[in-house]
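User: Could you walk me through two proteins back to back? I'd like the raw sequence and the structure tokens for each, with a short line separating them so I can tell where one ends and the next begins.

Assistant: Of course. Protein one, sequence then structure:
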Amino acid sequence: MPGSTVTFHGGVREIGGNKLLIEDGPDRVLFDFGPSFAPRYKEFYLNFLRPRPTNPVEDLLEFDLIPRIPGLYSREALHGSDLPYEAPRIHAVFLTHAHFDHAGYLEHIDPEIPVYLGPDTKTLLDTIESSGTVRYGTHPWTLLTPGSPVRIGNIEVRPHPVDHSIPGAYGYVVHTSSGTLAYTGDFRQHGPRAELTERFLAAAAEDAPAAFVTEGTRVGPDPRRNFSEGTVRSEVDRVLQGSPDLVLGTCYPRDIDRIVTLYEAARDADRAFVVSLKTAFLLTSVAGRPGFPRVPVPGHTPDLYVYGRPKRRYYKWEEPFLDAALDADYVRTHGRRLFLMLEMMHFPELIDLRPPKDSPFIYSMSEPFSEEDLEAEVLQNWLEHFQLRKHSLHASGHCSAPELVSIAQHLRPAQTFPIHTDHPDDFHPKGTTVVSPEKGVAYPIGGT
């Protein structure tokens, strides 16, 4: 096919799983490579039922959960599959951010293919690997500089930081021989780094993109309130000031902006902020790096403590925090001076903590995408059993539908492709042709 094209191998009518392949003559560049949150994955794999580590690509190909792209996968990952190994035919992979649905399949990629990413994203990937079971493989890692172009043959990629619910997120402006494509990754306009998003959009507008690829997580039915981080802070202040007892909460464990917000709210309410061992390791790992200027550090920052839940054995990365860690007895007897963050997998600690009836529980995460969300049901069962009051206080990591419409109308590309959404057909900006992409179809950049 003449000219440059974009093919969507994931993120099509589903949340997550973005996989954009841009081709320009012999040059081929992939943007993001992770699993989706689509129900189809859960039809075959759930919890501990996962693809075999010895045959990962074979198992995922069986159910069309990973694309058949020749020259992408490592020889080891292809073991047992009917997709023959080929030397790399993809010349680079660019990541937008460190969320699992954008980076979680990197382990399967041929180790000779370079991966381009922001410095903060690389720090987070290293930390995630060190404290968990996720692996990203061995690659030639290349750190991006904001605004500095990367040329891959005929394709020039300009990275621009954007605001999202994890540090170090990027959007991209991609120049090809047929025109320019702007790709948002996941982004928002209402977060603490909103000015980054505005600069990205200004840079994209200046280059007059022929194609605009935007996430659309909140297009369609959206029960979430469009809180800013400042609104979250003021609402958390209200809850803390109104409670005479222990306050509990949960947030996405790598949303460092939210962790900082909650820590500062706790201090202003004359409470100590108590985090999990894994959060303590994350904060310690990223503190002092340029992208994390305000990160509190256990053992160094006032009123920040670690909760040491009992375990049969502790990992090496947990050991530095154990001597000063608080236990359930301490939290139970000093609750009125504490704000304890409790990840959902640690809810059995409530049996020992025994928080007083009507203690507030601040739920600072995205609302479920479906009323049938099993995790939400289990969460509610625990809260009801211990008679805790839930306060949903969250600033989404994604633009609202009206914001996305306004952005598309401002950019006025020839074509707009909504991905990372269950409802692409509900997106109706004026001044651009909206194309609801089909998986595996190559679309000319700049139209036909």
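----
Protein two, same layout:
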Amino acid sequence: MPTRTKFVILMHPDEFKRVKANTGRLTHVCLADSELHIGIGFDQHEAVQALINDPQNYPVLLYPGRDAVNLSETHQGNSQLTTLSSQLTQRRLLVFLLDATWRLVRPMLRTSLSLQRLPRIMFSGAAPSRYVIKRQPEPGCLSTLEATHELLVALDRAGLDHYALPDQLLGLFQRMQDYQIRRTAENERLGIRRHAHRIPSGQPLFGPRPLPKRRRIFPATAPTFQA
């Protein structure tokens, strides 16, 4: 899928091992102008640093927060979005996505000062996660593929990109899950239970699971983002 925006997926090594349900890898395969790099810290990563320091790029990090530009707020008077648009008249938008669980995303960011210094973008008002074979820790968390889809929707509405095939990513995402569910059912019929993906019985498909941690990933009114 062609996009004006270049996407760079920074994948934690633990995520790289999840071959069967790795949405970051699937996202990379779907996007023509994308790169995928594996690691934890990227300050010494030559390819990543070359992208950040290329004057033709305007690098940003998809990460929610008070200082992040909310691409979903396209109302007149959004000075942050206006500033971003002006930056892109001469430069290409380059979006870095951290592909890991929330427990691992934070260490990735802490160990990469060059990523911490990047301007941040986010979106809001996204649909709940469609991940059936994996439980998200709480509402607002999305897979990397879903977050990329929602980001492209927001970029298209803001006039910063053209999302010509909005059903492609989600369609492939659903096909990947359908395949895993079929294989799980087949393995159960054969008595094979290794690496089975189970949907917890008696629980809603998209509901959050209880958090044992002391604080939530998002405040109650926080924006949607990937996990």
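DSSP finds eight helices and eight strands in the chain.

Let me know if you want the two compared in more detail.
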